[in-house]
Amino acid sequence: MEASAEKPGDGPQPADATGPDPARGSGDDGPSGRPDASGDTPQSGHGSAQDAPTSDKTVRTARTIVVLGVTEVIGKLSMVLLFIGAARILGVADFGAFAYALAVGALATLIPLWGYDTIVVQRASAEPKRLRALLAQLIVMRTVLVVLVLAIICAVTLGFSRTSDTRTTVAGLLVVAAVVLDTYTEGYRSAAAAMQRQNTIAVVHLLQRLLTAAWVLTALLLDTGLLGLAVAYAAGTAVGPVAAMLLLRRQGVRADWGTVSVGSLVRLNRGTWMIGLETVVSMALFRLDMLFVGWLVNNRAVGVYAAAYRLLETAVFVCWVVARAVFPLMAADPRPHRVRRNTERGIGVLAAVFLPYMTVLLCRGHDVLLLLYGEQFADAGTDMLRWLAPAPLLFGLVYLVTDSLTAAGPTLRVLTGAVIALAVNVVLNLLLIPHYGATAAAFVTSLSYAVEAVVLVFLGQSRVGRPRLSRTALPAVVASGVAAGPLLAPWPLAPALLVAAVVYVPCWAVIARRIDPEQVRVLRDMVKRRKRT
């Protein structure tokens, strides 16, 4: 079945584990003549331009990754500055309250998100003419769920809050509301992903993050406390959905409100329950540890854990950048060998970024925390950070394998892997956190993602095959091992990082050129095309 494998008005059909059925197609004339997500027309047979190692599609995909990556790096750095400022100015306890509100907000987004963004990318990538209708249906459905979720959270919070904590309660609710409202921005970004026009909207999202960070840091410097931070954070976040909507309108995409009806919303929800449940379970796996630390320890422990965890959150944006670039290609052409190939490309990027990052955190984690947050956070959070160091790579592997399995439509394999990992996470957190504190939560986080990755790769073999992980990741593994030398040397952090980078890059390039030359060729072609343009 193709990614959208349904005609308007029809529900999704069971996915074909062996590849698309030309008789079914995707509402067009079959896979051999259907344009893919980037506007190219796939050709049947072997040795086509589509399957060339350095095809235009491959280079465009890699260039999209670079553009998104640059904007996300700058945006994440602005959020890191926001977190550093909050941690240093608010203190551990108030910073813990802010981090706890962010965690609650992230969990609250589970219902409004519910896999709708993935469905829009899948269906609109295969049938671009449906994008305006799907966008309108997504926004309406999300609005209903956002109102419901915020009403429940406000009622529960106000019912259990103490009078003496009114300012903290109001600040927490503002932060939660801001996080939930940001789901509208994700909806518009999904529409841009379906059109393969992600670069401009990524810049807009970057400007919104910079604005939010500037307002929050200004509020902190004016000594407005936790409440002032929350107001500034909410105001800055609200800019995102408005700017994204205006940008899409300038690109000719407006939500077609006339297509919204009870029937269309029902059709939108068909096929989302599996993706929605998987999204809920995956986000719970990503955020429940923070709540467990707050429930079983205290706000101070949440603050220290959040400081270390922020380095995980800051890094995993790479997963989203890569997925936004390769998932539309998977959804547009979900034949197993094409999906597997795109998955391997994504894993290569993740390994090249996350393995050296993990090496830095393992070797110089205390120095990193000391530089960013100060001695109080560094002394208490170093062990947590070391246990969290493998988590970005494991999370990325889970993220890409999940996309590869859902490219052709929903599958119970993804939900099964997520449920198993969540069960491991909840049981071990309840058993270990009371005895070992937040350090146990860090250990359980990495272990849970490792369990999920193994389960998904095993269950996905019959659907898309097994990605060649060893060949794809080997250049980064060897180069990171070599770079560990200067990181372990008794040097200050800055020169150690500089020497490690100087060692890592050529080492990776030499090995990649020998065992996986496509990675190097893609980068070279990107540079050549950039010069010509």
Automatic annotation (TrEMBL):
**Protein keywords:** Cell membrane, Membrane, Transmembrane, Transmembrane helix
| Membrane topology value | Multi-pass membrane protein
Q: Where is this region: Disordered?
A: 1-57
Q: Does the keyword Membrane apply?
A: yes
Name the source's superkingdom.
Answer: Bacteria
Q: Which Pfam families match?
A: Polysacc_synt (PF01943)
- Say where the protein is mainly found: membrane
Localization per record: Cell membrane
Renumbered to this chain, the Polar residues biased-composition regions fall at 41-56
Report the transmembrane regions from the record. Answer: 65-91, 97-121, 133-158, 170-188, 200-221, 227-248, 275-297, 303-327, 347-372, 384-402, 414-433, 439-460, 472-489, 495-512
The name this protein carries in UniProt is: Flippase
